[in-house]
Each structure stands twice: as structure tokens, then as C-alpha cells.
Amino acid sequence: MTKLWLQLLIPLDELIQWEVFILIWILVAFTWVLQKLFIKKFSDERKRHLAIRFLNLNKQVISLSALFIMFFILNTLKNNEIIYRLIPYVGIFTITAGAVTFVQICRILLLQYLFLTSEKTAVPLLLVNIFTLGLTVFITGWLITALFGIKVAPLLATSAVFSIILGLALQDTLGNLFAGISLQIDHTFEIGDWIEVTQGGQKIAGQVLEITWRSTILVGFLDELISIPNRFIAQSQINNWSRHEAPIARSQSFRVSYTANLEQVKAVLFQSLIAIPKICKTPKPLVLISEPSESWILIKVIYYIEDYGKFAVIADEVIHECLKGMEKAKITVTYQKIELNTINRDDLRSQM
Question: Is 153 helix (H, G, I), strand (E, B) or coil?
């Protein structure tokens, strides 16, 4: 037989073994068992996400099994010139399919672990994607070394100029990537939290939808999508309004005259607040005399809500109910007045 230009028969025979194939099937069965055992703990969205992953995994396992069986059958018929030339290509496809299947299995196992440890909070796909990328790069480098004898690590280490050029070209992308990783490590916020990002007088608020390689996606109060670079968030002041262990405090102020009965005012405002269903009953709302001025007394009401995304709607109801309660109790709400006095020109000249 003529010599093949692709001399991979020996490395392929060493890599494509029954033990590896059986191990992949055991891992597939393990992920399936975990899915059946803990599927009740997953939300409908997570079930759909994993169902798609398992559907892709099934396709990959079937393809891998077909290629694996084909490789061993062709190996028994390699005395034929055409089959002998075909074996290396089938082997490369088999190894590639095995590597892709293994990465997919590891990704599903990581997702299952994160779903089980974070039952109530969303899982950021950024960390899952970084794990998948790192594992893919590692396996690809190992296969290149095993099949072609090319040592990838020294090659990357010696290409200093290429690394500098690539680093400068991807400076912003890498900055946003590592900023996103640091935000996840610090647990500054989680997916589903309502946050407020402030920098240099600029203020952006919304609910965290996803953290990607480049940016953090927020959903604003009008359901608009807001994309903020991770570096911008990492350098900004962040207010997280979704502390899961306590409700969110909000306040509203009203001005009453000095002639008003303050005890009556406080009682009317308190009754108006507890009548609103969307306000938490525990802790109870507070009505405080905040600040006296020359023209009025400032009364501040403090109440607690569970969902920061509804604060504007609840604030509207608070103002409406409090004003209606004070109007019913005949309590006058004061406001700032500006008086303009007209002066006759002749009088102004005489004064001058």
C-alpha cells in the first residue's frame, strides 16, 4: 500500500478505545439519572433549557456511536486500499465527536449542579460559557499534541509579539470579560435583582436579565433592554434593591400647616397606608414628623414593598390614598406660594 500523507493510524488506535466509549456512555447515563431524580426541583424554564441540552446530547451520542462502530469495522478491512485511506478521516471525525460529546456532558453536569444549588435565583451563563470555553481549549490543545505531535503550550509561550497584538486588539473585550467575572465572584448582584448603577451623575436602573461576555443586560421600567458594559458597572456605584432577606423601604413626604392636629394627621396617613394591599404589613409603615419650616411641617411616611419593579405604581397609590384620606379628614395640604406685586411706573419714579 502507498504511504498515507496523513500518518495518524497509530495515534488513532491509541485514542479510540472501547473504555473511552463506555466511559462516555456512563457519564450520559449519570446525567440522565440526575435529571430524573431532581427534575421536580427545577422550574419550567430550567426544564426546557435542559431538555434542549439533552436533545442535542442525544444527537451527538448517536453520531459518536455510529462513527465509533464504523471506525472499528473499517479497521478490520484495512487491507483494502480505499478503506485504508479512509480510516484516518473517520478516526478524526470520531475523536472530534467524542470531544464535543464530552464537553456537552460536562456542561450539562455543571448546569445541573448550579440549578440544584441555586433553586430560587437564576444562573449566570457567563460562568458556564467560560468553563465550556476553557475545557474546549484544553481538549483541543491536548488532541493536537497527541495526533500531530505539535506542542501547543511552548508555541503560545514563544509568540510574545502575537500575544501583545492580540491583547491590544481585544483590550476592551477582555476588560469587560474579566469585569463580568469579578462581579460574579463578588456576588454584587444576581440575575433577577433590581439594581441602580450610578457614575458621574449618570443613573441607570433596571432588573438584571443576563451577564454576557461584554455587558450586563437590564430590563428597564418600561420593559426596554439596557446593555451596560461590564467595565462601566465594575467602576460604578451599585445599589441593589433586591435584598432577599428584607423588604425594600420607600418614603413619601407631605406638607401640612401649623394649625393642623399632628396626631390626627399621623393617624390618617397610617390608616391610608395599611389599607393599600401592595404594602408590607411587616414591618409596619411609619409616619414621622420630619422637618418644621417657616410655612409648614413636613410629614414623612415610610413604607415597605417586596418588588422594587413596582415602586412607581405603589408610590402613585400611596400618594392618592394619603391625599384622599387627608381630604376626607379636612386636613389642608400646604404648598409653596409665590406672590407678585405690581408697581405703578409713576410710583416707582417718585420713589427714585
Answer: helix
Q: What is the per-residue DSSP string for 277-340? A: TTS-SSSPPEEEEEEE-SS-EEEEEEEEES-GGGHHHHHHHHHHHHHHHHHHTTPPBP------
Q: Considering the entire predicted model, what is its pTM? A: 0.58
As for how many domains the chain has, the answer is: 3
Q: CA separation (Å) from 57 to 72, 111, 142, 335?
A: 23, 14, 23, 68
Whether 215 and 102 share a structural domain:
no
What's 321's domain CATH number? 3.30.70.100
User: Nearest-CA neighbor of 208 among 230, 236, 178?
Assistant: 230
Distance (Å, whole) CA 98 – CA 147? 15
Residue 70 shares a structural domain with residue 142 = yes
In eight-state DSSP terms, residue 42 is: S
Residue span of the structural domain in which 37 resides: 9-158
Burial 192-213 (b: 16+ CB within 10 A, else e): ebbbbbeeeeeebbbbbbbbbb
Q: Note the pLDDT tens digit of each residue in 194-220.
A: 888 998 878 888 888 887 778 888 988
- Strand-pairing partners, residue 196, are 205, 239
Q: 133 is written with which cell numbers?
A: 470555553
115 and 222 inside one domain: no
SS3 string of 218-276? Answer: EECCCCCEEEEEHHHHHCCEEEECCCCCCCEEEEEEEEECCCCCHHHHHHHHHHHHHCC
Other Cβ atoms within 10 Å of 40 Cβ, number: 7
**Whether residues 217 and 257 fall in one domain:** no
Q: What is the pLDDT of residue 234?
A: 86
